[in-house]
Amino acid sequence: MNIRRAVSLIAWLLFAGIVYSTLSPLGMRPHVGGWVQLERFGAYGALGFSFAMAYPGRKWLVLAMLLAGAAGLELLQMVSADRHARFGDVAVKVAGAASGAGAVWLFARHAQRFRPAVAGIIQNASHRGS
Fold first, then answer.
1. Which of 63, 80, 112, 122 gives 20 to 30 Å between its CA and that of 24?
2. DSSP structural state of residue 77
3. d(Cα 43, Cα 19) in Å, to the nearest integer?
4. How confident is the model over 49-88, as pLDDT tens digits?
5. Which ranges in the chain belong to alpha helices (H)?
6. Whole-angstrom Cα distance, residue 60 to residue 82?
7. Where are the transmembrane segments (predicted)?
8. Among candidates 42, 54, 52, which has minimal Cα distance to 95?
9. How far apart are CA 50 and CA 103, in angstroms?
């Protein structure tokens, strides 16, 4: 299994976990502890990061899917009697997803700048050890 396929599998498993914790009854929702908004931001940040890594050439599709997924899952909470949909929750989820995906795309865009410097450092280190 190559790295891209493994990251894709992780992204979809993470999405399944988020769907479960978003739509399950409140008592069954997993809690990491601490501030709930930070949990949401972190979960969607990891989701955005993993989908951006898995599908690097599909930036707009990934962003649209993350936005639709966050809004759609939040709206589906209205079906459950003990859950609620709030705009603030959607905003935190979208911000987390965009931050995670944006970090990948920003690094990919600017990684070329640092490659020569890192190669020079490695080359100098190998000459010193000889």
1. 63
2. G
3. 11
4. 999 999 988 989 999 999 999 998 888 887 776 677 778 7
5. 3-23, 36-54, 59-76, 87-128
6. 34
7. 60-78
8. 42
9. 11
